[in-house]
Design goal:
The structure is a homodimer of 216-residue chains. By secondary structure, chain A is an alpha/beta fold. The first copy, chain A, is built from 6 helices and 5 strands, in the order E-H-E-H-E-H-E-H-E-H-H. In chain A, helix 1 runs parallel beside helix 2. Chain A starts with a strand and ends in a 10-residue tail after the last helix. Chains A and B meet through strand 3, helix 3 and helix 4 of A and strand 3, helix 3 and helix 4 of B.
């Protein structure tokens, strides 16, 4: 059974559907680490309840003052553009994945799950050091030793593109209008930030209709 | 420069003095993860201010509901006795060290420190999976990959006994009466819980006078 780190974004919603369809979803944990796009957590709750997966949120907003001047948790503006642009480095929250996975492993131990699953995918970019495969492999080796019994790290989308994830989600019946990607957290998706740009392209490449309302 | 995980306990106070004496103490981070012995944090602030090391506390009390039924963060009673006793397993907070070190690494990145130091020592016991050397080695490999530049994991006491740490502390001029070990967090050290028992033995084995006031 798996404890899923579940943001309410497109990728992790498809992961939630996948594990629920396999009967392996022990719980979904949404972590608010002080990000501006807290809106995604509303969708997380909606989807977990729809699938009957025990859902819990954890507010780590108290971490924000520790994490320096990144644009997701501080007053620095979220940049527009592609992930390849140098200015996107400001969206890096230091060591975010390691913090979230460590806490998720603790929760997995507490509820008797033997694995932690997250939606890292092949489209994740090298500007995020903690999205690299070498990092995830080292983290998996650490989680295997963190408790009396090993905790496994599941990354079933690691060789998927975001378009592959959209395709799988469509097969599993995901309502993509109930997922959130935009870093800016407005009334609707902005349509211009890095993650909105990527979201649009994934639907187009997958040949799946995009139900998202974009402002631009 | 090192960011020190600093509880205000005996071991990490000696570590703080050691790194400060070497001019390598970039900051001290005390993490309250919902433990009952929050009293140690008062001593942490005292010692950091005395040494002029920037001090920060982080309240992770919000984690307590996630961490199940362990005696340090829940209503389960703290057991008396030696660490070797089976009942001491209830003092295991799931994955505590990995969570704390992940957050400390994030803080190190934010302040430009290139290492995280903690006071794991040879006397730490196998009932704590996240005190084992194999675990720490795996974690070090993970921290080396978590950011653009590697974050080092410093464990200078890993081959020390607790008595060795007391000896070093005496040489560095540590005021041991300003450190806290007892898991029960009463007015004075209880003198009977596992960590009090160990503290008494360390002073005796080191041949250093123990200034601690014990209730039993």
């Amino acid at each position: 059974m798996a404890l899923i780190i579940y943001s309410g974004g497109l990728d992790s919603t498809v992961l939630l559907y996948k594990l629920a369809s396999e009967g392996r979803a022990a719980g979904a944990l949404s972590i608010n680490y002080g990000q501006k796009h807290v809106k995604e957590l509303e969708f997380a709750r909606f989807n977990a309840e729809k699938l009957g997966v025990p859902f819990q949120t954890l507010d780590l907003g108290c971490l924000a003052p520790l994490l320096g001047d990144n644009s997701l948790t501080s007053s620095t503006a979220v940049p527009d553009g592609d992930y390849d642009d140098e200015n996107m480095k400001s969206t890096v929250v230091p060591n975010r994945n390691m913090i979230m996975l460590s806490i998720a492993a603790a929760r997995a131990i507490a509820i008797g799950a033997d694995s932690v699953a997250y939606a890292a995918h092949g489209g994740d970019h090298a500007i995020y050091p903690d999205c690299r495969n070498e990092f995830a492999d080292a983290l998996a080796a650490t989680l295997a030793l963190c408790h009396y019994e090993p905790i496994k790290l599941e990354r079933p989308f690691v060789n998927f593109t975001k378009a592959d994830i959209v395709k799988l989600g469509a097969e599993l019946g995901v309502d993509f209008s109930k997922t959130w990607s935009c870093y800016k957290g407005g009334e609707a998706h902005c349509g211009t930030c890095g993650t909105c740009t990527e979201r649009k392209m994934a639907f187009r490449d997958a040949g799946v209709e995009d139900p998202t309302e974009y402002m631009g």
